[in-house]
């Protein structure tokens, strides 16, 4: 983007793309005219090829088979309520949203063609892409967008973003201006709204669709068959609006919770790709060349989390003691084979508005023992729930338990099966681990810590932090955005429920004939986007 004193952001053409920081800077300068044209890129078949592609033209046909960890019986076809990574991949295959986050964390137009707000960013107007059809042949219109948001806001549908949607958007006040234009009034200003709507939980369904209906989206693949916890089979959508895509005839997603089984299926040729290589598996593949390691650098983490309202972690002294127990370099080296970098108990290392000025927390067993004694918890016994659901999760739990013993804390590591780990007991435990992928810090907060957050693992509810968060959503000035973000992270660092000990790259495996799946810091296996994947002869 050219450097201009007063860039016109009211209507900028498709095909342009800028970073999140540049986009926000543009908002601050433009003042009255807020549009996302320059912060978004057109989603078309002209997009640059993925990093795994070669100079040869994509070949058509064949079945692409991908092995995911899976989610067992909790797997779902509800596009507005995915939980496991395989649910996300299904949703991205069958459905689409208005916007999509790119591997570079910029936003791309998908079903939206343009977006602009009023001067206060309290009302957004979305122009929709024409000539898009659902899998049943019916046209995509503004009615479908309004219905989708109404559906998400309805508690009966158990949508992931139900609380967030009703908190941010005046859903009853949404208006259809014409068949391809929607006006979205907000309950409070939000200059980041399109970044919030990029989540696949906001995938658009056809007006009138209910969970018991067969899937009917606008995505690159159509529904074929599935068995929860086992497999999904989707044929290509021959009428997809991105003409020429997808390249493969069928997409098959397999649930394989056992990491060794996934690895053996990859090197044995039964699957074309697998989610979540272990560090030893990745090291082996780099040495033997039996398959390709897809490495996606970013601010990904498998933190330990503590519910701030449950015993014994409602006492911040106990939470701080746990953070001081953690020997971070040892965790990075032993649990993640040196692939990770040390974390400092806040999300987003390396991203815009990350507070790098906070003192790096280091292991201090003496101070940890002092805090525990002061809190009346000397000789504490706790259970740490873990799994192999993410690379390095179980390993880091084991290392941490050994470190905790030095402070007189007995940590019992309880391993749960990977395919049920993010099932019914998730969000109810007092001491457990999770996995977070790279995304803008402000949207990470919306999912993990803000009021109505869909995955509020730590049960966070701090009035001062929430007040700053609401100010951030309405703030146009980049400098003030940074100040607010840094202040919020300082509060987290001092009293939050996360022990973010390290950040690591995503490591997945691909067979040598797979092309068109590029590293994506926002999620495994290229973010689960397979419309451009193809199989070389």
Name the descriptors.
alpha+beta; D-Maltodextrin-Binding Protein, domain 2; Dipeptide-binding Protein, domain 1; Dipeptide-binding Protein, domain 3; 3 domains; eight-stranded mixed beta sheet; 27% helix; globular; disordered N terminus
What would you note in describing this structure?
The protein is α+β, with helices and mostly antiparallel strands and 537 residues long. The protein has three domains: 51-95 and 219-291 and 511-537, D-Maltodextrin-Binding Protein, domain 2; 97-215, Dipeptide-binding Protein, domain 1, CATH 3.90.76.10; 299-503, Roll (Dipeptide-binding Protein, domain 3). Helices cover 27% and strands 18% of the residues. The chain has 15 helices and 23 strands. Strands 3, 10, 11, 12, 13, 14, 16 and 21 form an eight-stranded mixed beta sheet that branches. The chain has a five-stranded antiparallel beta sheet with strand order 1-6-7-9-8. Strand 17 (381-386), helix 11 and strand 18 (410-415) form a beta-alpha-beta unit. Helix 8 runs antiparallel to helix 10 and helix 9 (328-335) packs across helix 11 (393-405). The chain starts with 19 loop residues before the first helix and ends with a strand. The relative contact order is 0.17. Residues 1-54 have low confidence and may be disordered.
